TrEMBL record:
InterPro entries from the UniProt entry: GLR_AS, Glutathione-S-Trfase_C_sf, Glutathione_S-Trfase, Glutathione_S-Trfase_N, GST_C, PGES2, PGES2_C, Thioredoxin-like_sf
Membrane-related topology note: Single-pass membrane protein
PROSITE patterns, sorted: GLUTAREDOXIN_1 (PS00195), GLUTAREDOXIN_2 (PS51354), GST_NTER (PS50404)
Keywords for the protein's UniProt record, in alphabetical order: Fatty acid biosynthesis, Fatty acid metabolism, Isomerase, Lipid biosynthesis, Lipid metabolism, Membrane, Prostaglandin biosynthesis, Prostaglandin metabolism, Transmembrane, Transmembrane helix
GO biological process, one term: prostaglandin biosynthetic process
Keyword Membrane carried by entry: yes
Main location per the UniProt record: membrane
Family assignment from sequence similarity: Belongs to the GST superfamily.
Protein name, UniProt field: Prostaglandin E synthase 2
Lineage: Eukaryota, Viridiplantae, Streptophyta, Embryophyta, Tracheophyta
The keyword Ion transport appears for this protein: no
Source organism per UniProt: Musa balbisiana (Banana)
Length: 326
């Protein structure tokens, strides 16, 4: 669904006076499938959430003050949808690469960071899912981690460098990253990503939840899937405890909630850190969190912090995936 369709949906809410959906899992405007993995920098996974059911908001003959407030809230929410839907920033057609291939793990937060950038800018890209055991898909490269993005034959590596280089290509007239944006881009790589593994592999059941998705959606043989799900979950459960100690995390959920609240505080009342439109920091935070959003850790995060509204605006602004068949 592109920019026009998102705009139409948002405007239809204005016309029909729809109330906003519940805040937690149903806060997703569209069904999403997301996860996390390991030699891209961290490892974890996903689940899905059904599309929310919007409820018709009908006015009584003599509306009370509470109803008036509710209507104002519905209109405000609808206007937010319009703003988010119009935030899309596709580059000029002549600047869009002709051939873009992403070598990834579906569950990798760094790969999802790159995908969030490409999706937001409507850049078509193909995906090659890398087998994390053999890595045969990237034997041609001296770089043995993901993501690797090949743009018209040129290999780009490291998610932050990939995004910065593409941003300079798409916005040559506005390629300078301001101090605030730089600060939060660094925070994503130095802090936020380290909160993920201790949370998604916090318990054996959460570890199995993550690796069930990885096993089903990763590039594995039938035999490898069973091994990856159970052995991988057991290994990452133990690894998560070491990571917890390494990064001085006492309570992993509290640390995740604090990170989410730190981000929403930085927004300071703005729809996005970039103001009316997402900037690179918005896209980086969204991309990194997208793999965990519908896992137990992600659901808990949304239910216990104020990040859900921003995340929903980002889902609308980024829109549908621009991935194409390989």
């Amino acid at each position: 669904m592109g920019r026009v369709a998102h705009g139409l949906i948002a405007r239809s809410l204005l016309r029909r006076n729809l109330a906003p959906p519940p805040f937690s899992c149903a806060a997703a405007v569209a069904q999403r499938t997301v996860p996390i993995a390991s030699s891209c920098g961290t490892a974890s996974d996903v689940a899905t959430c059904p599309r929310p059911r919007w409820r018709l908001f009908s006015l009584p003959v003599a509306p009370s003050r509470s109803v008036s407030v509710g209507l104002a809230g519905a209109l405000s929410f609808s206007l937010t949808l319009v703003t988010a839907a119009e935030a899309k920033e596709p580059p000029s057609p002549e600047l869009i690469p002709k051939d873009v291939v992403l070598y990834q793990y579906e569950a990798c937060p760094f790969c999802n960071k790159v995908k969030a950038f490409l999706d937001y800018h409507d850049v078509p890209y193909k995906v090659v899912e890398v087998n994390p055991l053999s890595k045969k898909e990237i034997k041609w490269s001296d770089y043995k981690k993901v993501p690797i993005l090949v743009v018209d034959g040129e290999q780009l590596i490291e998610s932050s460098d990939i995004v910065k280089k593409l941003s300079q290509r798409f916005r040559p007239e506005n390629s300078v990253i301001d101090e605030e944006e730089t600060k939060w881009l660094r925070w994503v790589d130095d802090h936020l990503v380290h909160m993920l593994s201790p949370n998604i592999y916090r318990t054996t059941s959460e570890a199995l939840e993550s690796f069930d998705y990885i096993a089903k959606h990763g590039n594995f043989s039938m035999t490898e899937r069973f091994t990856v799900k159970y052995a991988g979950a057991a290994i990452m459960y133990m690894v998560s405890k070491k990571l917890k100690k390494k990064y001085n995390i006492t309570d992993e959920r509290v640390a995740l909630y604090e990170a989410a609240q730190t981000w929403t505080t930085a927004l300071d009342g703005r729809d996005f850190l970039g103001g009316a439109k997402p900037n690179l920091a918005d896209l980086a935070v969204y991309g990194v969190l997208r793999p965990i959003r519908y896992l137990k850790a992600g659901k808990d995060m949304v239910e216990n912090t104020e990040i859900g509204e921003w995340y929903q605006r980002m889902e609308i602004a980024v829109g549908e995936s621009s991935r194409i068949a390989a």
